[in-house]
Amino acid sequence: MSKKILVLSANPRKNSFINHLACVYADAADKNHQVKRLDISDMQFILDLSAGYKESMLMEDPLQEFQAALEWCEHLVILTPIWWGAVPAKLKGLIDRTFLPGFAFQYEQGKLIPKKLLQGKTARIIMTMDTPPWYYIWVQGAPALKQLKKTTLEFVGFHSIKNNMLGPIINSTQDTRTQWIQRVSKLGFEAS
Asked: How is the chain split into domains, by residue range?
């Protein structure tokens, strides 16, 4: 069954391994599915909410495009590097600026937990890191994965969120990178 898939390359640097993996995933998924691919490196917007959620900000075109693609998709794939144990500031800024009350969630009078407005969607998070993934999980506690999976995507209604951690990148061989590319291609083809 064909899915609507949004692939987000979340490395602010244009020529990155993450960007290459996003192309690989999208190309493989495009064989059987409808695919939109967005590169955060192409998006120009103010990163922070200087007034928090107290005042609305003008929504730049790339943010409107991302929100429209997010509403359209059935499956979201986020490919991101891990920097200092977390996601890049530009990805955090994209989330802060677009996962807004009234779009991604809605507080309701007398209820502690907001209504999830992006229900029914699935996701996959693919992370690259210079740390060995086992170390990132067991020693550092995988903070970026928890942030994206639990406190962002599940909070707004996503379910069945899967992840892959690839690393360490810094000293990886071409053979290892080829294996990672093949794994990401398979994930794209299966749309999982």
From this structure: 4-190
- Domain 4-190, CATH class in plain words: alpha beta
Q: Which residues pair with 39 in a beta bridge?
A: 9
Rounded to whole angstroms, the Cα distance separating 85 from 107 reads: 30
SS (H, E, C) 58-99: CCCHHHHHHHHHHHHCCEEEEEEECECCECCHHHHHHHHHHC
Q: What is the dihedral of CA 23, 178, 82, 105, to 10 degrees?
A: 40
Residue 157 backbone class (left: φ over 0; alpha: ψ -120 to 50; beta: rest):
left
Q: What is the pLDDT of residues 68-112, one digit of tens each?
A: 999 999 999 999 999 999 999 999 999 999 999 999 999 999 999
35, 3 Cβ separation under 8 angstroms: no
Identify the band that residue 192 occupies on the pLDDT scale cut at 50, 70 and 90. Answer: confident
| Stated pTM of the model | 0.96
Query: Is the confidence at residue 150, as pLDDT, over 90?
Result: yes
Q: Give 30-55 pLDDT, tens digit per residue.
A: 999 999 999 999 999 999 888 787 88
Q: Residues near 48 by Cβ (< 8 Å), separated by ≥ 6?
A: 93, 96
Strands 34-39 and 4-9: parallel
How far is residue 47's CA from residue 34's CA, in Å, rounded to a whole number?
Answer: 29
Selection from 118, 100, 83 nearest residue 49 by Cα: 100
